[in-house]
Amino acid sequence: MHDYVPGKADWFASGLPKEGRLASVPTIGDSARRDVPTCAPAEKVENAWDCVRTAGWDACVVVNKEWVVPGLLREKEISTDPVATVERVMRSGPTTFRPDVPVGKMAKRMRERGAHTVLVTTSDGRLVGLLYRDDAECLAGERS
Amino acid sequence: MPTEIFRDEVRALLEEGAQLVDVLPREEYEDEHLPKAINITLKELDRERTANLKRDAPVIVYCHDYQ
Asked: pTM for this structure?
């Protein structure tokens, strides 16, 4: 007999599959963009940002070797010092949310706080993706 | 005494055919549970209710979180 001590809260917060009558409620894990560009903390900002801009994104998630997120890089951080390393200028310790948060609830929260994006990570800090408010509102049925 | 395990171990055991038992109240189980888990609430967890579990496959029990 084994006891999965962290329980179903841990399982769902990792974005793993579930069953049940609420299992089909859309979550932010369903809507987060998983192809968001990433860069390493030791990279030069200008190199990282070139790739981001070429790919048409406006943000880059900083990840370490374990895919844990120490920070976020956006245009406003780039302008401070383009030749610095990413870890020097990144926004450290950004707020993150677990993938099992209902997308309707998050769309409302983002609207109220004027947030354009939020980071979605597992309970152990690994990147799931970047959620855009537009995507969240679409999935929540609040816009087409 | 049950052995404490974590997510990666759960996944590995499930690949080996482990059985999942959700011990939460029926309503919570019906709302959301891990795939293929069966529900035997803590109050019901006795010899009779567990008689249908396979004896030759690991059994993993879980509740909501660290409780």
From this structure: 0.79
